[in-house]
Amino acid sequence: AASRDGHATQGACVVTASEENELKSALGGSWPGVRPRPLALRDASFAFWDKVDPASFAVRVMNAGHESTGTHILLNWTCSAGLPSVHATQSCHLTTPQYNAHAALMDFYRNQLLETPLGEMRPVSTSAPLELRTLLRDVLTSGIAAVHGAPYAYLVDEIVTAIPAVHVLHSKLHPMTWAKWYGTYMDGRDVVCRDEIVEQQHLSSHWDLVACLGSAAAMKLPFDRAFARAGSLAVSPRSHTQLAARFASHTAYVGSAIRRRTQYAQVCLFSPSELANGGPIGEVEIHHGDSPSMSGQALHTARLLQAIARTRVPAVGNYSEARSPRLRNWWRQAVSEVRKVCEPLGRLPPDLRFPSAVSPEGRGCAILPMHMVNVVANLSLPTSQRPIDFTFIGGLNVDAATRAARAWLIPFISRHFTERSFLQFTDRASRASWTPLGEFDHTLQREAFIPKELPPGDPRRFTMDLSFYEVLGRSAFCLCPAGDKAYSMRFYEALMAKAIPIVLSHTDMVRSLREVRLDYKYYTAADAPNFVYRKDWVDHNYATFLRYHTLFNVLQRARRIVRKRSRRPPARRQPGQVR
What we know:
The chain is α/β, with parallel strands linked by helices. It has 22 helices and 15 strands.
């Protein structure tokens, strides 16, 4: 809630507890809720978008709002900022190839979904999800800089997976206001996934378009059993509530999942009757109407989008530009573990394939050796018995880049560290003139070093600091600020030790495009003080770490191959065969 120019805005788009109960009862078992949920990242999305050159994406802004939430207003702003922009019914600054790419996607959306009769009994095509992703790829790589409303709003998972650095603007209305307006004044042709598919397939929302198409195709369902018209769900007060429940759940999903992964701003719109008392919510404020007003908060919106137009999409860090001796050493150790398992065979078997997401250069996912994982597991306490709440062990004033990236640490530590916390700055510059910040500060009480401050031949550069991992394995949360590059090794180590990372923003973990797309569970400093040590997050992070940051699966396959070939009987000698 906020107040500007004397206009109170509390409750304009917020779903209260009583309203949530009303919405929940309207949908029953298929209600996904308005609680925060993670982004629905899927292997099929990764497999598709990993093949696209990230440098080819031009989209900087997407509006994740539904029809009738003011998407045209935001379109006007991106157009006024000079961005090539598309909407279901309008566009601006487009070249012919860009228009054709957008038109092809809209034709698919109309022909396959909007114009299909509800009584259509043909099964949903198994090729529909791939065709939709392909058309979306053509739009995202055409040079179009801003996409608005349907169907792009229903492809938000795909767009954020493809372009982690995209700016997401989310135009909103209060769910009940939107449902009544939509059912009364709009034709309601938009389709929603039916409740049974959302419930059975655990979709992120009723507008999870690609997942609904894929689920319907896999289940061989006809169109009318997979989708319903949104307008048909808003013909009575009770159906208004049911449509509002679906809308509230989708809005909450976008707001919670997208906010943790990219740059996000909500745009809360007021119904016409509330315009007289309109005001800002979130970072952006615009008014409900046919065209934006160049006064008050609307001017702020224009300036925001003009700033976006002048800003390049942040480049993803690349290992080839930020070579790390420690990453190379970890990789060599991990490969050596695989070679050791395969020693009985005399060589690495040709059918033992390393995952495409990793490479010796580290352009995919950073790889840690399994012996490190096992050592840390033995040093760590169970997740239910962790005595340390927050921990940070590392450098503060190593160099100018590190000092700038970690400037937020001292204010955060001063506000949130307690007697249960653990702090130790380990760089020489900090320790030389340090004044302890409290009982939790062990900077001057323990020996410490920074690997990069050691001579090149010092063996400690690549040995495990067991005291560091022992503290980390007893901690619930670990501060993982960026260092001299836009990521920190500590993020991987926190995942390995089952501590939940805390970063300044999502850009503090941008080491490679592949890693940005992984669905890590973490907090940002802005989430304070709402830090909860969640076992489901810890288990998810640890499974993600083992899958993408170790060669655990490769080792398992290598062991199976060795066992299988060691049990194979010697080949029988054929008549006339020379031994």
